[in-house]
Amino acid sequence: xxxxxxxxxxxxxxxxxxxxxxxxxxxxxxxxxxxxxxxxxxxxxxxxxxxxxxxxxxxxxxxxxxxxxxxxxxxxxxxxxxxxxxxxxxxxxxxxxxxxxxxxxxxxxxxxxxxxxxxxxxxxxxxxxxxxxxxxxxxxxxxxxxxxxxxxxxxxxxxxxxxxxxxxxxxxxxxxxxxxxxxxxxxxxxxxxxxxxxxxxxxxxxxxxxxxxxxxxxxxxxxxxxxxxxxxxxxxxxxxxxxxxxxxxxxxxxx
Length: 255
What we know:
Strand order of the largest sheet: 1-10-9-11-3
Order of helices and strands: EHEEEEEEHEEEHE
Oligomer: single chain
Number of helices: 3
């Protein structure tokens, strides 16, 4: 999963019973102010929830992270499905990765999800020293071009389109700029299951203003649906507020 404010990577391996998964499917949730996810999804009340504010001065340098080389080498995805699910844009794919993760497990990049703000002052889920990012504005991001070019075709909820080629490696910083932090947290969307290792890159990527505006044209509803009073149907501000750090330690792979 990636948040283009400052690239985030996460690996989740929570186990759930089949009937529990079926029960949670179809449950409505959203980012509206005042909505309490914990009333419907108990895991959202856990102590080790994400996202968090990352205080760089309190991060603990861990030289052992350098022993496990962070060297994701994602496989280029052919015929990837891009979907507007009403909460975000998803790119569904499968591509193996590596990093400071539990040994003896094989992990796959399953999907890429995007979070953005209606304005440039906000949008990222995690914050660094209380600074939020919108999907940082700058030059056009070539790796996102395949996605942003088709967003007009999936403007409404439930729409999807297949793109012929998507290279997840283009969403990562330059190999020389891959300093990162690591901490243990949760999914940032319901059911907010814990057991997630978050890898947060120190240096941000950039995306052009034109590209981010393509995201801001998306809608949370199906085409032609009647909107409830006070809802404009614009898909944006789709980020969960930061959660308490509690007793967790943020580790840094750099000094």
